[in-house]
Amino acid sequence: MITSVLDYVSYHYMEDIKVEDLANICHISETHFRRVFTSYMKMSPLEYINTVRVYMACELLETTDYTVSEIGALVGYDNPLYFSRIFKKQTG
After folding, report:
1. Is 77 within 8 Å of 53 (Cβ atoms)?
2. Which pLDDT belongs to residue 16?
3. Model confidence at 1, in pLDDT bands (50, 70, 90)?
4. What string of H, E and C letters represents the secondary structure of the chain?
């Protein structure tokens, strides 16, 4: 059940992903999905999405000449300040 969600996030990390949409993929309620996901992954669905986005941002930082704001937009963050805050939190 969780594997299909992980695959979905891997292919759609740059889009606006709602936890409700992920729960619908599993055909369970959002509350139950959050519990199952957190139990299995040891992080919340939002933390996982942010982890995937930051990982992809690191890849882009190393391999392209895009600005930080451009990379933030490419990995799914509309707000450059929010992207910067999440990136610093995840990477130190």
Report:
1. yes
2. 95
3. confident
4. CHHHHHHHHHHHCCCCCCHHHHHHHHCCCHHHHHHHHHHHHCCCHHHHHHHHHHHHHHHHHHHCCCCHHHHHHHCCCCCHHHHHHHHHHHHC
Half-sphere exposure of 65 (CA within 13 A, CB side): 0
Q: What is the CA radius of gyration of the chain?
A: 14
Torsion of CA 20, 46, 56, 14, to 10 degrees: 30
Tell me which residue has tokens 């392209």.
64
8 A C-beta contact, residue 74 and residue 60: yes
pLDDT value at 66 more than 90: yes
User: Confidence band (pLDDT; 50, 70, 90) for 15?
Assistant: very high
pTM: 0.92
